[in-house]
């Protein structure tokens, strides 16, 4: 896919409509891919990332609304324009709520079609440039609805989101319902921690979230080397610095609370401090 020849995927169960779209768009210099069903469109999207998707709303078996939702799971950034003979507000709203950026009423006005296609491809390209700038600055961001649907995401944030398990998603959705600006959520895994920071509520009701991943093994090793403590003491101190109680640490490390306390006594002695707040401060300083 080259800069001067954007690719468009047209999805419609009517062969005549696909043929007209192909001729019209090709004449304007676009590369056109066609699919006669939602399933075929999804198969194409697993191999190619088009610059824009034209999607018929009413198709047998898998309709356009269901297809749109599935497309957003594969490529959340793909601009989708619905083509529909349905002008009812209910259907328009349904299409836009599934992630479409626009809609066209059939029979299509070809001049309007070309104009809207060009506008949305240009907007998507500018958005992509902005995302690349955010990624290069280490800003891994996403906007997510209250029910967990991804509206917009940078590449790395999308990678983090796709790696979430079912319990992570349920925890995220519950957090979004009550989170406020600068609130934090930690999703703990065996070898890593995913930190989410709530930034703001968007005008469309979605939530802007910042993602940052931490490598637990690397961070614990850093504590061990910098503070000259044992491996197990670094395990305990890491979770102390994360604000965990002795009971929570005992469950995470599968040791007794008494053992946690014994390790803390050694940590305080080695760091020459007398409480967990001071020990946490030294740990956080070592990790920054």
Order of helices and strands: EHEHEHEHEHEEHHEEEHHHHH
pLDDT < 50 runs, ≥5 residues: none
Derived from helix and strand composition plus strand pairing, the structural class reads alpha/beta
Going by CATH, the architecture of the largest domain would be: 3-Layer(aba) Sandwich
Percent of residues in helical segments? 40-55%
Q: β content, as a range? A: 15-25%
Looking at this structure, what is the CATH superfamily of the largest domain? Response regulator
How is the main sheet built?
A: 5 strands, parallel
- Number of extended strands: 10
Instruction: Report the principal-axis shape.
Output: elongated
Strand line-up of the largest beta sheet? 2-1-3-4-5
Classify the fold: give the CATH topology of the largest domain: Rossmann fold
Radius of gyration: 25 Å
Number of domains: 3
Count of runs of 4 or more consecutive helical residues: 12
Return the CATH class of the largest domain: Alpha Beta
Distance between the termini: 41 Å
Give the overall average pLDDT: 88
Fill in the keyword field for this structure.
12 helices; Arc Repressor Mutant, subunit A; 288 residues; Rossmann fold; alpha/beta; phosphorelay response regulator activity; five-stranded parallel beta sheet
